Amino acid sequence: MKQVNSISVKELSVMAEKMYGNLVKAVVDVNSKAFVVDAELHVDEEQYLLERGSKQQDLWGINLYPSKFGQGDFIEFDSMINIRPRQQNMSRDVEDESIRKKITNIVNEIVTA
């Protein structure tokens, strides 16, 4: 697991092959733009960021599919940590379109070809 400011699709591909074959789990802090990748579970990445000062309401779990870089389904907004009734997010998906947009913008800044 590591926090990154920049990561290439090639690096993500290597991570994916070691873990799940086709995806990399990541957690994004939509407030500070912190970005953690390469853990077996989103909750581990979430805990890592919480220990470094992030607030839970700002943390969202996603999956990245390196082979789909540049396509609409490169980012999958699916994680158990996203279930937050107190934030009106009742599913594993990120339901708020403005939050999805923030996540997408952060991913686009950090992940490079």
Structure notes:
This protein has helices at residues 9-19, 42-50, 97-110; strands at residues 2-3, 7-8, 24-29, 35-37, 59-64, 75-76, 111-112. It is of the alpha+beta class. The chain has one domain. The chain starts with a strand and ends with a strand. It contains three helices and seven strands; from the N terminus they run ββαββαββαβ. 30% of the residues lie in helices and 20% in strands. The chain is globular, with a radius of gyration of 13 Å.
Task: Give a concise summary.
The two termini are 21 Å apart. Helix content is 30%, strand content 20%. With 113 residues, the protein is α+β, with helices and mostly antiparallel strands.
Relative strand content: 15-25%
Q: Structural class per helix/strand content?
A: alpha+beta
Major β-sheet, in short? 5 strands, antiparallel
Computed CA radius of gyration, to the nearest angstrom? 13 Å
Specify the overall morphology: globular
Portion of residues within helices: 25-40%
Low-confidence spans? none
Q: How many helices does DSSP assign? A: 3
Features:
single chain, 113 residues, alpha+beta, five-stranded antiparallel sheet, two-stranded parallel ribbon, 3 helices
Mind sketching the topology for me?
Blueprint: E1 2-3, E2 7-8, H1 9-19, E3 24-29, E4 35-37, H2 42-50, E5 59-64, E6 75-76, H3 97-110, E7 111-112
Parallel strand pairs: 2-7
Antiparallel strand pairs: 1-4, 3-4, 3-5, 5-6
